[in-house]
Amino acid sequence: MNIEYKINADLSPEQFIDLLKRSTLSERRPIDDKNCIEGMLKNSNLSVTAWNSGTLIGIARSVTDFSYACYLSDLAVSKCHQKKGIGKQLLSITQKQLGPKCKLILVAAPAANAYYEKIGFQRNERCWILERSHRIGQR
């Protein structure tokens, strides 16, 4: 298998949605909202993709300042290509694009916690999420 990795490659919403469906992320991403998916792609400023014979098989999609913080929004690898080091390579290439003090930060799906710990991420109990449906100060 010859995997080609690309940085900030053009990617259609359809290709991204297809990958999300072939990975485990489609359950937690708005795959039925094309406008939202388009915004996710358009407003990411760092993406690393993995391709096999012209087919998207993996992505690490981030928002970053390249100096201090890189928020990894998605790490997806198609199920049939998992456990082959593709996710690690996507993260490694992402990390190489960042400055020497820049941290990779993410919110993991519960099933992925062991994976991230295994590859060297440290658990942090200080993550907070405010859903759009909630207003600041309201419970």
TrEMBL record:
Residues 3-137 form the N-acetyltransferase domain. It holds the Pfam family Acetyltransf_10. InterPro entries: Acetyltransferase_Butenolide (IPR053144), Acyl_CoA_acyltransferase (IPR016181), GNAT_dom (IPR000182). It comes from the Bacteria. The keyword Nucleotide-binding does not apply. CDD domains: NAT_SF (cd04301). This is GCN5 family acetyltransferase. It comes from Microbulbifer thermotolerans.
